[in-house]
Write a structure and sequence with these properties.
alpha/beta; six-stranded mixed sheet; four-stranded mixed sheet; lipid metabolism
């Protein structure tokens, strides 16, 4: 684990080849999503989105928690504002929602490496990622109901990751869901030993990055678009993506390589 201090940015980035590793780095605060953390995460995602050299992303965290959700100490302090905190709360929810949507809209696939608990907006963050690798000791939870604050915004991501009744059970009961149960529900792709979480996420991201970037990025965008549409409209949208993809250089190269029984040489365009 990296050493942290007062001057450590709340989100750090390092690149391994075509994979960017974004790390939540407020372990003493259980990587809670303070406004500074949200701002830093948004900036990191914006930077990755504009970086054509990056073809996959791993979202990791320092310390025993992946992310404990919103910074409740920060929220409580703003109750002393003249409006009782209303403006700050609205801005915070908007900033958080923008970050979650940025993860979904990021051109590159995002693999979450969940090494510890992911609660409330932290569970929302994991659910917003394209793939999730979890430690066998990791747990997921939307416990807002326990403190009189129903996890409504985390429920948006959760409802798009697991079956409706499973999402409602998590939201209504607020109970910890172990990694293996989260995998059964569809919230987690793979469960590994705690020490293998980051290596497994990097391996998965590296395998994605080895594919044609243009195909993967068109595919992610197209999948998310069609998933929100009725059946006939979904097929229309997916068909347009297929045509766009077929016209790309990498599709011509990949199909030609398959026919010629050779390895393709991706140009990522």
């Amino acid at each position: 684990m990296a050493m942290t201090g007062e001057n450590t940015p709340p989100v750090t980035r390092r690149d391994e080849g075509a994979v960017a590793i974004l790390t939540l780095d407020r372990p003493a605060a259980r990587n809670s999503l303070s406004r500074a953390m949200l701002s830093a995460l948004q900036a990191a995602l914006d930077g990755v989105a504009a970086d054509r050299a990056i073809r996959a992303v791993v979202l990791a965290a320092e310390g025993p928690a992946f992310c404990a959700g919103h910074d409740l100490k920060e929220i409580t302090a703003r109750r002393a504002d003249p409006d009782g905190g209303a403006a700050f709360f609205a801005d915070t929810m908007a900033a958080c929602s923008a970050v979650m949507q940025a993860v979904v809209a990021l051109p590159q696939p995002v693999v979450a490496a969940v090494q510890g608990i992911a609660t409330a907006a932290g569970c929302q963050l994991a659910a917003s990622c394209d793939l999730v690798i979890a430690a066998s000791t990791a747990k997921f939870c939307t416990p807002g109901v326990d403190i009189g604050l129903f996890c409504s915004t985390p429920g948006v991501a959760l409802a798009r990751a697991v079956p409706r009744k499973s999402a409602m059970e998590m939201l209504l009961l607020g109970e910890m869901v172990p990694a293996e149960e989260a995998q059964r529900l569809g919230l987690v792709n793979r469960v590994v030993a705690p020490e293998a979480v980051l290596p497994a996420a990097l391996d998965l991201a590296g395998r994605i990055a080895a594919r044609s970037a243009v195909a993967v990025q068109m595919g992610k965008r197209g999948f998310n678009t069609q998933a929100a549409l009725p059946l006939a409209e979904a097929y229309d949208a997916a068909g347009r993506v297929m045509v766009e993809n077929l016209l790309a250089e990498d599709a011509a190269e990949g199909i030609g390589a398959f026919v010629a029984k050779r390895r393709p040489e991706w140009r990522h365009r």
